[in-house]
Structure formats: structure tokens, C-alpha cells
Amino acid sequence: MAKAILTAERLRELLHYDPDTGIFTRRVRTSTSTRVGEVAGTVRGTGGYRCVPVDGKRYAEHRLAWFYVYGRWPTEQIDHINGIRIDNRIVNLRDASGSMNRENQRAARSDNRSSGILGVCYCKLHKKWKASIRVKGVLKHIKYCATAEEARDAYIRAKRALHEGCTI
Known about the structure:
- By secondary structure, the protein is α+β, with helices and mostly antiparallel strands.
- Helices cover about 25% and strands about 30% of the residues.
- The chain contains four helices and ten strands; from the N terminus they run αβββββαββαβββα.
- The chain has helices at about 10-15, 60-70, 100-105, 150-160, and strands at about 15-20, 25, 40-45, 50-55, 55-60, 75-80, 95, 120-125, 130-135, 140-145.
- The protein has a three-stranded antiparallel beta sheet. The protein has a three-stranded antiparallel beta sheet with strand order 8-9-10, with helices on one face. It has a two-stranded antiparallel ribbon with strand order 1-2.
């Protein structure tokens, strides 16, 4: 038998959401392992996002927060404005396109081994630090710099100018 689609009313019946802290607590006991008033959900998987089980289905807490407050699911992705994935205060969440969400990235990818700095890598050919940025899927060169810090500063200036979703 298919499970019923979660409604905002059902969510509010089961959980309380505090928009100032971003924390969900249980209003009712739904199993022997849950208690009324306890914090609902845990950090799951490698993504570092909090998840909450509701009526046998696991939901991303940031999406539930949006649904709880606005009574509708987000139309696109939920972006954590400050980049902290477990900070689910409503003021830290925005309904954003995938590109805007990616533009708000704050940490270098794990495969950036040469610098570990977002937008910066070491260029062996020029023996300098290279700042580059991706805009609408196209990688753009910013400049070569003598130090990684100079390249990072150039990248941040470009990011603020070119990325609509940037909050750095």
C-alpha cells in the first residue's frame, strides 16, 4: 500500500520547528524509540545534511523547514546561505536554482590537492598560482599570482562580481 503524501498540517502535527534555531522537536511519540520534546533527526551520509524521518520516510531537514514555514515544497534546491549544512534556521535558507546553489560554494573540492583553496590551483608551467572561476558552465581564467593568497583574493573579487548566489 502506498504511503500518503506528507502535508504541511501532518508535519506540524508531528513536529515543532523553531525558525530561530532551525531545530525540529517531536510533538508526539511515534515509536518506542522516540520521546516527546526530543530533537528529531540526525546527520546522515557523507553530505553532512540533517535528515528527519516522518511517517516512515526520510526527509532532508532543510526542505522540511521550508515546507513547515511556507506550507509548500521549494520549487528548486534549498541553499544554505552561510554554507553550513546543518544550520537550518529559516533566515539561512533560500529556494535557489542549482547554479545559484553551486555558486555559493565556500570550500575547495576534495580533488583540489595543489592548494585546497576554492578557485585556486598551482600552475607548474608558469610556476605561479592560478585563479579561475566557472561562470554558466564555462571556466574563465582570472589571473596568475605570486602567492596563493593573492590568487584567492582575486578569485573572491571575481566571485562576488560574477556569481549571483555568492554570499561570501
